[in-house]
Amino acid sequence: MTYLFLGFSLLIAILLIISTGIFYEHHDKINFNMKKRLDKMLKLIYFAPIIVLCIIIVLTFTYFKSKGYIRISHAWLVVNFWICSVIFYYISIVMAKIKKIIIIVPFIGMIASVAIAIVLTPLSNYENVFRDTNLIIPNLFGLIMLIISYHSNNKLLIKK
Prior knowledge:
This protein is an all-alpha fold. The protein is built from seven helices and no strands.
């Protein structure tokens, strides 16, 4: 089960790279009015991991006082799935004007990312999935997802 979720995290990262490429292939056909309004959403993504981790660290040391490393690892991986789903949503909405089948790639990425984030959001589910795994491994996969999502985010916000 662990390898399934780690494989999905890599699949989400690959779909994000492909979706960003699709976005730039059809850059001349996108809805620029919608893009301008949704750019604010992507700018918020820059700070989302820092905000979430700070909140989890504060809650762990003040309220929960147990399983600190597991809670931080859990927050790290789940927030990266949510970030990827927001970027997929952005690409899907901005490219909605295009009637090609190619729009299905970011849509599938969004649905998969949201579904995995929802499944992993309860801490007990996260603990069951990564029970026999060193938590550095999902943290590393979360870091890979974060790097790719920040790279895609920068590419999407560049004005041409």
